[in-house]
Amino acid sequence: MSATYGFVKLHPELKTGTPKNLDINRLVVSCRSVLKPWYITLDELHEKFHYNPALMINVDESSTRFPADSKQLVVHTADTKADPAIWREFQKQLVDVSTFVPHSTHLNQPLDRVVFAVFKSELTNKFEAPSSSSSSSKRSAISDVLPQAIHTVLCPSVIQKAFICSGVLHNSSGPVLLKLPESSIYPLPSRRNGYNFDGKVITDENLLEKWENHLKMNIERKNEMDEKEKDEVKTVVDEKKKKKKKISSCEKR
Predict the structure, then answer these.
(1) pLDDT at residue 173 above 90?
(2) What are the pLDDT digits (tens) for 210-244?
(3) What is the 3-state secondary structure (H, E, C) of the chain?
(4) What Å distances lie between residue 31 and 145, 180, 185, CA to CA?
(5) How far is CA 122 from CA 8, 126, 129, 151, in A?
(6) Is residue 229 domain-resident?
């Protein structure tokens, strides 16, 4: 191994990489049969609404502001708010929201594909370990390189590359899908409890109606169960009262 490292050191034009551990859930969805339908849906939105790329936003645990009266597309993490009323408001503001297929963001989320990677690389390359090992010294050293790292990732070319590499622009999914196997040899992870909106356009009218009906049925079912439980409790209490009354009358005799 020392000879290998020595050879690489003598040839700086060569690049090395470290294999990354891939979570089983990410491995399972990293195939065309899972991701192609999501990209097809995204392309159908592009063809229908002709989004301005400048108004395409990748939201990941953050908020944003939108210009008024313009059609926009938001791609959102799948653990998004499970409340259709929220997405009704987005619909009213002409904002289409598509969720990612769970565990697939290492392939199709612009932030994961490029932005975060560039940010971490900048921190690693520019960071200089302080002479002191104290926590405050380490924080100060990181703070020194943060502004430059943030400035680099906010460069338009980095953001543009992120959207291109993730395949979320119109008809740009080909290079992403070509690198993936057709299907996975492992079973897909279990679906979330409740209404399934994974990898779907959650501002779609038909989806929102089905989602709202699903929630309505759940509430009605819960109310019925609550009423049934109340009746059962009342029956038990009445039985206890009758039994107690019967015992009391026997004792008087």
Answers:
(1) yes
(2) 888 888 888 888 888 877 777 777 777 777 777 77
(3) CHHHHHHHHHCCCCCCCCCCCCCHHHHHHCCHHHHHHHHHHHHHHHHHHCCCHHHEEEECCCCCCCCCCCCEEEEECCCCCCCHHHHHHHHHCCEEEEECCCCCHHHHCHHHHHHHHHHHHHHHHHCCCCCCCCHHHHHHHHHHHHHHHHHHHCCHHHHHHHHHHHCCCCCCCHHHHHCCCCCCCCCCCCCCCCCCCCCCECCCHHHHHHHHHHHHHHHHHHHHHHHHHHHHHHHHHHHHHHHHHHHHHHHHC
(4) 37, 5, 10
(5) 22, 6, 14, 10
(6) no
Q: At which residue do the structure tokens 């979570």 appear? A: 23
Strands 95-99 and 72-76, by their bridges, are: parallel
Band the pLDDT of 190: cuts 50, 70, 90.
low
Distances (CA, A) of 247 to 234, 240, 251: 20, 11, 6
* Count of structural domains within the chain: 1
Give the predicted TM-score (pTM) of the model: 0.69
Name the residue with tokens 């020194």: 144
Residue 109 corresponds to which tokens in the numbers above?
A: 């989320």
Residue 214 lies in a domain: no
Question: What is the token pair recorded at 176?
Answer: 């992403």
Residue the block writes with tokens 């953050």: 62
Which domain, by its residues, includes 126? 22-205
Domain assignment present for residue 136? The answer is yes
Q: What is the amino acid identity at position 223? A: N
Q: Write the pLDDT tens digit of every residue in 18-59.
A: 666 667 888 889 999 999 999 999 999 999 889 888 888 887
Q: Nearest CA to 57 among 83, 76, 37? A: 76
Residue 225 lies in a domain: no
